[in-house]
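Hypothesis: this fold can be encoded by more than one sequence.
Test: take the structure tokens below, design a sequence, compare later.
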């Protein structure tokens, strides 16, 4: 079953973290935000909420998750600024697993 699933680039284990960190570093490259780790809270990066929404939308598109992350955040009543990088990675990895089970 796993071999027949066509995944987006970067969905292999470990690469979600690298992709998210790379995207955040690119977005904040011109600012002095310090090192970004999995423990970094998204709200501490100085990004406007709309920028974080755009980031999540791009990640959902890249990993073919439709609106799954937004749906989970809304259901849990979590504001995107309150997420840590690790939380975002977890939502993506769980979404990939859920999509794999649905295939």
């Amino acid at each position: 079953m796993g071999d027949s699933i066509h995944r987006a680039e970067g969905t292999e284990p470990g690469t979600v973290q690298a992709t998210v960190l790379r995207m955040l570093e690119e977005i904040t490259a011109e600012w002095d935000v310090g090192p970004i780790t999995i423990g970094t809270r998204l709200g501490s990066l100085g990004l406007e909420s709309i920028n974080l929404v755009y980031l999540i939308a791009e990640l959902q598109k890249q990993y073919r998750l439709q609106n799954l992350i937004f749906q989970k955040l809304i259901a849990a009543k979590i504001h995107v600024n309150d997420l840590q990088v690790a939380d975002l990675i977890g939502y993506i990895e769980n979404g990939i697993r859920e999509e794999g089970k649905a295939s």
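Residues 1-11 have pLDDT under 50 and may be disordered. Residues 85-102 form the longest helix (18 residues).
Hypothesis status: open.
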